[in-house]
Amino acid sequence: MNEKKAVGEKATEFVKDGMVVGLGTGSTMFYTLLKLGQLVKEGLSIQGIPTSIQTAELAKELNIPLAGFKEIEKIDLAIDGADEVDENLNLIKGGGGALLREKIIAKAANQFIVVADPSKMVKTLGSFPLPVEIVPFGAEMTEKHLRELGGSPALRRVNGEPFRTDNGHFILDCIFPSLAQPQELEVSLNKIPGVVENGLFIGMADVLITLNSDHQPILYR
Ligand code: DER
């Protein structure tokens, strides 16, 4: 049973002809995009707004039409994955490094649908290190402020070099002792000069698609 495929494909049932769809990033969204590509081939007419260069490239390969913000009036639906989901549908996102564009699109969408296999479900957020996107300038000072907030930041690296987001920023993966009050932390984080955005998506998800104990897709709202 491919759990990511099951939840990723289920989300396409929300996609209707003529919609503008925010296209998320990650390995679950990979299956959503494959399915959307097949539906487009069968005649579905949509415009996609990609949340990353990686998603844009895959969408182009699948002939999913893409649009820019200047060409659309609204985003009907955003579909995206998550790294952690709590019982209130609050999320930690950013494992794939696309959190800034993902959050902009999720916030702009009329409906935000999250696709996450059962391994992402948690009682309280925080087992997954919280990605915090920062500008490279003064990164050492930003790290210091994050420590003062109780975090233990680690600069994300790829092959020994600092990871760069599509917007050229760094990501600090931060372990916090407790994320019992994520909404307060989200506000505190974004007050730090140098922080661009963080991976706490609080009160943003409208629908969660995951699997029940029989491995059948189940929706939570
Ligand atoms: O970066 C993100 O938030 C992505 O959506 C990603 O982390 C989701 O995880 P997945 O690759 O397991 O679907």
TrEMBL record:
Q: Do you know which SUPFAM superfamilies this protein is assigned to?
A: D-ribose-5-phosphate isomerase (RpiA), lid domain, NagB/RpiA/CoA transferase-like
According to UniProt, the reaction catalysed is: aldehydo-D-ribose 5-phosphate = D-ribulose 5-phosphate
Q: Which UniProt keywords apply?
A: Isomerase
Q: Which GO terms describe its cellular component?
A: cytosol
Q: Name one GO biological process term.
A: D-ribose metabolic process
Q: What EC number(s) does its UniProt record assign?
A: 5.3.1.6
List the pathway annotation: Carbohydrate degradation; pentose phosphate pathway; D-ribose 5-phosphate from D-ribulose 5-phosphate (non-oxidative stage): step 1/1
Q: Which Gene3D superfamilies match?
A: 3.30.70.260, 3.40.50.1360
State one molecular function term (GO).
Answer: ribose-5-phosphate isomerase activity
EC category name:
isomerase
**InterPro entries given for it?**
NagB/RpiA_transferase-like, Ribose5P_isomerase_typA_subgr, Ribose5P_isomerase_type_A
The entry's active site is E102 (proton acceptor)
Which residues are listed for substrate binding in this entry? T25, G26, S27, T28, D80, G81, A82, D83, K93, G94, G95, G96, K120
Family annotation (PANTHER family): RIBOSE-5-PHOSPHATE ISOMERASE (PTHR11934:SF0)
Per the record, the similarity remark reads: Belongs to the ribose 5-phosphate isomerase family.
Q: What does this protein do?
A: Catalyzes the reversible conversion of ribose-5-phosphate to ribulose 5-phosphate.
Name of this protein: Ribose-5-phosphate isomerase A
Native organism is: Mesobacillus campisalis
